[in-house]
């Protein structure tokens, strides 16, 4: 995310100012737009397969998981002694050059798999729409995926103004349409039967769902830019204001996403969710295929396309910047050359992955979710015991909760391996 999305940081406010401003609202919307993407389109499938109780427990834990983790990462970025440090600079400052490079590499790999997921998801969404709604034959997958991935990257290469226009066109209408669709599905709700859960099965389902939930609510890719903007804008009040913005973002995100998840799950049976997972399409594409309703048939795949595209743009920006930073710090390659190399390598990787068509949910659970958990949950908690300015947070219940969630997500990766 560009800082210009959240206001011009040069328009400083007086220290001690606690009133809510348009700057704060803009950042809530920007962080919200970063989080609302392909993850929430697949979250109902993963949770819905497990039945009623995982849904309820996820609803209870989603807010503390989301808010406390992102608050911890923002605190970590703001703990730097330098006023303009990004994530890579902060980890090197606190953990040393070698550990800093390793963590920066993990940061890149927390974003890059998301691009692979979006390449697969976008190709499957468009293919499903062409076959099921338009009655067309499937295009060769290598051609369809290549055109779609190239089109999204072309927007990125068009410069910041084109990117910001794309966000304005994609993100905010997406919010309204998804909310409307969530409400539209309510007449189709079939409340599942509530039975005594099998605690062993419930525990395993929740455990393996943690990485998916972490992935679905994550807006970690924007936190470094967000925290830096607040530091320049609010100075000594940056931590306090950052926490307020993140809290409101999390409340808005959880309320919006939970309504969508509940609406989708109550509109489909667990068997239908399993079929959607087998088809490797988003819940909206599946809803469009099973409901004989022109409204859902049209809007479902359209919303899936917009959500995946908008999130792809935001995460490609983060991956691109992260790759450039890693390469220029480790080699003598110029920034321009590193940027060109990164764009080419990422295009080829995303294209190949889209052609191969691996399971999106398996990729979320086995790769992206656990790595995001390392960066978002585990690393900031370790920093609390290492960085003097963060040690005031030691011993707090929220610190242990964030660490426990992160370890659960990482252990799910080891189990899947």
Automatic annotation (TrEMBL):
Record's subcellular location: Cell inner membrane
Membrane spanning stretches: 27-45, 51-69, 102-122, 142-159, 166-186, 206-227, 248-268, 299-320, 341-361, 367-385, 397-415
Any Pfam family the entry gives: Trp_Tyr_perm
GO terms (BP aspect): amino acid transmembrane transport
Main location, first listed in the record: membrane
Bilayer disposition of the protein: Multi-pass membrane protein
Keywords: Cell inner membrane, Cell membrane, Membrane, Transmembrane, Transmembrane helix, Transport
GO cellular component: plasma membrane
InterPro entries: Amino_acid_transport_2 (IPR018227)
This protein's name: Septum formation initiator
Species of origin: Pseudoalteromonas luteoviolacea DSM 6061
